[in-house]
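Our preliminary data section would be incomplete without showing what the modeling component actually yields. Below, a chain of 407 amino acids is followed by its predicted structure, encoded as tokens that our downstream tools consume directly.
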Amino acid sequence: MQPTAGRPQIMLAHAVAVLLFGPTVALLVLGVVGTALTPLGIGVLLLLGVVPATRLLATGQRSMAQEILQRPIVQDYVDTQGLGPITRVQRWAKDPARWRDLLWELSSITIGFTLSVLSIALFLYPLWSIVWFGLWKGLPDAFSDAYGTHITTTGQAILTAVAGVIVGSVLWWFTVKPIARWRFGLDAFLLGLSRQAVLARRVREVTTSRALGADAAAAELRRIERDLHDGAQARLVALGMNLGLAAELIEKDPEAARQLLLEARDNSGDALQDIRSVVRGIHPPVLADRGLADAIRAVAVDLPIDFDLDLRPPAISAPLESAIYFGVAECLANMGKHSRATSGWVSLAPRDDAIQVEVGDNGIGGADLSGSGLRGVAGRLAVFDGTMEVSSPPGGPTIVTMEVPCG
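Predicted structure:
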């Protein structure tokens, strides 16, 4: 079942929707009249005020539906800033989102209004049963008929009122959320992105994620190449030179050849250690041996900061696990270098069909969002359609939120 807000919040939303019936009707009528009179010129002046007001009303209803349905509802409007009146109206006429707002207004004053009034009526019916009993006590002849029954005694009136309160309350309790899903679900359908717009946005997101993923992969390859060139490759070159010199000196100066062989042995060990470091940067052994939660704990233990860890990772693929690990590790490294924090936290848990990770600290804030580290994290996550948000006002706290689909 789809999640919805609590019953008090739903009833408040229905009440606001009913109060907006008048303004919605007025804007709908003015919008239709303005559209019809556009060829005469006066319609343009009318639409210059009506269309922005309609968008404002639709945005408010969109926010209300979002709170009730507890899911994001977005809409993309064509930008008309800085355009002249005629050009602006022409752009509005070609914007599907504006026509969807107009269709929502028609739906809101018919189906939506009926559903909101129905929910409010069911909510008020138990109260009306009590009021009816008081009216019957004062004017028994005028209010003696209820539910097709002629009420003549106080006992019958009390029984009728109690039955009305119980039946009305139960009926409202079990119908208020389905009615809210119908009413505000229709608003979300009309005020949200159309299927074509959703597909277009998805294409843009995939294009962006591919670019970020390609950049992240290229940066990772450059890092591996640099580490191998500056570390293992240099030591292996020195190893080859020492072995060559030792071969030349082994008969003339055995002691010098022996020293060169010892140096070659040391260089081989250092080269092996460098190669292990590079491999560890590709996929850390602790991640493969102990899993994501313990790998993050191992990173946190090395920092001189008190951590509150809430790690509940689900079973996920190794590449996704690696991306999350390196993302958290980068955030923890930044925390240790720059935050001056005394305490921090890491939470990792499944949420619907995604993994949500939050890394925060009580440090000085002011994180550099353009730094290569955070951009690298964003690139890693983008490969998996993941997102990253950073909140780091001056004075702190710094909170990095990562969300990656894992369904």
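The chain has three domains: 7-126+152-191, 212-282, 285-405. The longest helix spans residues 195-249. Preliminary results of this kind motivate Aim 1 of the renewal.
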